[in-house]
Design brief:
The chain is of the alpha/beta class. It contains twelve helices and twelve strands. The model has no long low-confidence stretch (mean pLDDT 92). GO terms for molecular function: DNA binding.
Length: 320
């Protein structure tokens, strides 16, 4: 027979209410009684009914998080950093993947709402079409946009200053024919990095596809056919790794024949051949700030909307 809270209370010599408050960490319980209850629960092998406790307290101690693609090393690392921050506050993370499809994102957000998550961290996959899912969640629970954001949505966001990072990168590269290889501006990072590049160079040549290694390889073949520039500035590290791979296959030297840069500083960037010069997003700092803002919203009241753009840093390596 399963051990109940009544059994624990009887063993500890306290009321059921006292046993319940002691095990849930609530105030108003004498230390001696708390110690007796904890000891009794351990002796009896008591396992609390988490679902029932959640219904009573109206909290599940869980945070939902939806990312565009968990296989992307940048998002995977960001998830790890968020989880570390939540563990300090004794909250668990429920993770979902949208696969860069707004209709999937809507279903994933609804699934997390159905599981009664206390709040949501959303990396919206589209700067316009993610608005419906974001609004649906924000109407029920606290929501913080992380890394990416929806155009015109009046809510909290924590991410990086993409334009500042692109400006620093272009300034490091100096003069010479430069081509930007990035993603179509369907998400806010793609948009702001493209705009940042164009402002930094006063226009510039551009090739747009998506944030993938495969697109980087395709773009490199186009550049080889049309004539290599002196510098290839890539919208993220995955694109840059694809460019490096294709140039290597074609016998093109980096940085001797062309310089290549990325953006994000994913774990593979330093391991590439040559090591990739890139813009580093401080993911631990971004995650810590996002969770802090989320806890501020969870604390109650009507906290002010937070828009935090953290400055990235330039990581100069062998590729440029």
């Amino acid at each position: 027979m399963d051990v109940t809270i009544h059994d624990v209370a009887a063993r500890a010599g306290v009321s059921v209410a006292t046993a319940s408050r002691a095990l849930s960490g609530q105030r108003g319980v004498r230390q001696a009684n708390r110690d007796n209850v904890v000891a009794a629960a351990s002796e009896l092998g008591y396992e609390p009914n988490v679902v029932a406790a959640s219904l009573r307290s109206r909290t599940t101690h869980t945070i939902g998080m939806v990312v565009p693609r968990i296989g992307n090393p940048f998002f995977a690392t960001l998830v790890e950093e968020v989880e570390k921050q939540l563990q300090d506050g004794k909250r668990s993370l429920l993770l979902a993947n949208s696969d860069y499809r707004p209709e999937v994102e809507r279903r994933q957000v609804q699934a997390l709402l159905d599981r009664r998550v206390d709040a949501l961290l959303l990396i919206p996959c589209h700067r316009e079409r993610s608005g419906e899912a974001l609004a649906a969640a924000a109407a029920r629970i606290p929501v913080v946009q992380l890394d990416l954001r929806v155009d015109g949505f009046d809510g909290s966001w924590v991410g990086v200053d993409n334009e500042s990072g692109m400006h620093e990168l272009v300034r490091h590269l100096g003069a010479g024919r430069t081509v930007y290889v990035g993603s179509e501006p369907t998400d806010s990072a793609a948009q702001s990095r493209l705009e940042g590049y164009r402002r930094a160079v006063g226009g510039g040549e551009v090739l747009l596809g998506d944030f993938s290694k495969e697109w980087g390889e395709t773009a490199a073949r186009r550049l080889l056919a049309d004539g290599l520039p002196e510098v290839v500035v890539c919208g993220n590290d995955s694109i840059a790794l694809g460019v490096l791979a294709e140039l290597s296959r074609q016998g093109v030297g980096v940085p001797e024949d062309v310089r290549v840069t990325g953006f994000d500083d994913i774990p593979y960037a330093e391991l590439s051949q040559p090591a990739l010069t890139t813009v580093r997003q401080p993911q631990a700092e971004i995650a810590a700030e996002a969770v802090r803002v989320l806890h501020e919203h969870l604390a109650g009241g009507k906290p002010a909307t937070r828009r935090t753009a953290i400055k990235p840093t330039l990581q100069i390596r062998s590729s440029a």
